[in-house]
Specification:
mainly beta, seven-stranded antiparallel β-sheet
């Protein structure tokens, strides 16, 4: 599907490169696809199969991280993902690069080129076929792009194994050092030698390039081997025709820039203003038949809470535009059909639940059927395969206890380039809330392989004044045990926040720590660096640092608008406070509680200065209960001496 003009319409910024900004404060580098050492070993995940029969088909849509071992053998080093690609035929692809399955470079010397990942099929029985059987292998391929894209010295090679057990290269592709992404191309390779028609036939994809990690990336999708697998000629090029409609990209978040929001922060006004239309990408792989009435497209689209799967919150209104005359690629937008009902559901759940995990689910209500191939003019169906396996996608939006720009998947990583450098990511919070900690993802690579320390920081404003630092806490980060696994660090003392704030860290190591970086989302305008005392905005990196603010899940009533009898507008100041508390009115009794509800201070002695010494209390966030006669008010107070 070479639709070159489409590149100008819809570009996803997935650039695989090592970037160092002009002021050398921060670097962006590739991230490995490391998997937990506690999971079954790579060898244990390989299924031993003597041979498999035609047809062979894999679009990778039903697997994550590693290929299906019932189809592929010794291919655990290949990364199955949806983040390393641009407009694939179906939602996931197999990416081949210079990392092995344990997240280690084949060779740490960045100047060393050689053979990297390989994707090898299980043995396939072709003994009952001949040259006249018209057996073809078809697949879609795409080279990586950006600073470390494959160049003309790098290659993707295809080989077939003959009856003597020798690998014979039958085709190869060279890189073009692309800066921007290219569309997938489809290639056909006929099994055209009698030596290949034996009971142990295999095919192999193999990349050659830089072996120091995630360099020289090649993507593969929709791999199909069968008799009768012949290309269809279209106005642009020849490619195979499948009675299959697929999703190329999952739906984006409808909650402004956030892929996660604390449930108890949601407010009707904010939801009404910030719920927006979102989008996904659709492909029609039946060449030239999209206008056929029997091959039309409709969507069954709903949103429900994964914690209450039997309750559909709302249906989704989906609208789109095809991007080609052949109607084989389209961009669709969606939104809640009944916005008011959707908002009311969330606000109702907020009062009784601590979490809602929204699932925006899209199903192609099409005529996709069992997999079939036309052989000698007759349609032959294969009951073990179905075109409908790639007809459903879901986007999960957690409404729990944290904000997140990132979608939970790292496509690369960033690191500050020296000890004492600072990074901050800004957030716009809903209402006044209590920050209790920070979640952070540190990919498992050499720098992160052992326990390291950083200082987590919270600011209400980025300035040169230390008074704007609301919290600084040194923490030890442990080695990650799984891909995209966050570590949570709770503060010794919570922080009361309102409106805009910033979270980040100070680098404390000579060998800098790496933080996950999501390039499918983009909060670049909220990213800042500091290396010499002054803050500078990010101007080059495109993505979201995988660091998240975590908030108290409990609902604490702090309103003074509902006193016992009469409204009482007493206030306490300054807040934050350094130990001397002042009041705007006299009082009879004051009690100060910590956030666990424990009484920490009590007094009945109001002096004429209107001042109270609370310096004996530890720095923390408190609830101050003040009574005068039959009037009472409860306020929040942050003590920071």
């Amino acid at each position: 599907m070479k639709l070159n003009w489409l590149q100008n319409f819809y570009i996803i910024g997935l650039v695989f490169f090592s970037f160092m900004s002009a002021n050398a404060q921060i670097s962006e580098k590739a991230v490995p696809h490391y998997e937990s050492q506690n999971t079954p070993s790579l060898e244990q995940r390989i299924i031993e199969i003597d041979t498999i029969s035609l047809p062979f088909w894999d679009d990778f849509s039903n697997h994550s991280s590693f290929p299906d071992s019932s189809l592929w053998i010794n291919s655990q080093n290949v990364f199955v993902n949806s983040g390393y690609t641009y407009l694939p035929p179906s939602n996931k692809v197999a990416s081949l690069d210079g990392f092995d399955g344990q997240g280690l470079a084949y060779n740490t010397d960045a100047g060393d080129n050689g053979v990297g990942d390989s994707l090898v099929s299980q043995p396939i029985d072709l003994s009952n076929f001949t040259l006249n059987s018209n057996v073809n292998l078809s697949f879609f391929w795409q080279e990586g792009f950006g600073g470390f894209a494959p160049d003309n010295q790098d290659s993707l090679k295809l080989s077939f194994k003959n009856s003597e057990g020798k690998w014979i290269q039958v085709h190869g592709f060279s890189g073009n050092a692309r800066i921007e992404p290219s569309l997938f191309s489809q290639h056909f390779e006929r099994v055209n030698d009698s030596s290949f028609f034996h009971s142990g036939f295999q095919f192999k994809f193999e990349v050659s390039g830089n072996l120091a990690g995630d360099f020289d990336v090649w993507n593969l999708d929709y791999i199909y081997l069968n008799e009768g697998n012949t290309p269809v000629n279209t106005q642009d090029n020849a490619y195979d025709s499948y009675e299959d409609r697929t999703f190329s990209r999952k739906a984006s978040t409808p909650f402004k820039d956030y892929n996660a929001i604390p449930l108890h922060h949601l407010e009707a006004e904010w939801l009404d203003e910030n719920l927006q239309t979102s989008e996904f990408i659709y492909n029609n792989l039946w060449a030239g038949n999209a206008n056929n009435f029997s091959f039309g497209t409709e969507f069954f689209s709903v949103v429900f809470d994964t914690l209450k799967p039997n309750v559909i919150i709302d249906s989704l209104d989906v609208n789109g535009v095809f991007l080609t005359d052949l109607q084989d690629t389209a961009r669709f937008t969606f939104q809640a059909r009944n916005k008011t009902d959707f908002i009311n559901y969330l606000l109702t759940e907020k009062e009784t639940e601590d979490s809602v995990y929204l699932n925006f689910q899209f199903n192609l209500g099409t005529n996709d059927s069992l997999f079939f191939e036309t052989i000698d003019g007759v349609a032959r169906y294969y009951p073990d395969l179905s075109f409908r396996q790639n007809d459903t996608i879901s986007t999960i939006i957690p409404l729990h206890d944290y904000y997140a720009y990132d979608d939970g998947t790292a496509e690369s990583r960033v690191q500050l380039n020296s000890r004492n450098f600072l990074l901050a990511q800004g957030y716009e919070m809903i209402g006044e809330q209590i920050l209790t900690g920070i979640d952070i993802y540190t990919p498992n690579i050499a720098q992160n392989a052992s326990t390291q320390n950083i200082t987590l920081l919270v600011w209400n404003n980025l300035s040169t004044s230390t008074d704007d630092i609301l919290r600084a806490q040194n923490v030890l980060l442990n080695q990650s045990t799984a891909i995209n696994q966050f570590q949570r660090f709770e503060f010794d003392r919570p922080v009361m926040l309102r409106g805009d704030f910033y979270i980040g860290y100070r680098e404390e190591n000579d060998d800098p720590l790496s933080i996950g970086f999501d390039k499918n989302t983009n909060s670049a305008n909220n990213l800042f660096y500091n290396r010499s005392g002054s803050w500078e905005p990010n101007t080059v990196l495109q993505g979201s640092v995988m660091i998240r603010p975590v908030f108290n899940k409990s609902r604490i009533t702090v309103s003074n608008k509902k006193p016992l009898d009469n409204e009482w507008n007493i206030k306490v100041y300054p807040n934050p406070n350094r130990g001397k508390l002042k009041f705007t009115d006299s009082w009879d009794e004051i009690k100060i509680y910590d956030l666990q509800g424990r009484l920490q201070f009590q007094s009945n002695n109001f002096n004429q200065k209107g001042e109270l010494d609370i310096s004996a209390l530890s720095d923390n966030l408190y609830l101050v209960q003040i009574r005068k006669g039959n009037m009472m008010s409860t306020l929040k107070l942050f003590l920071d001496k």
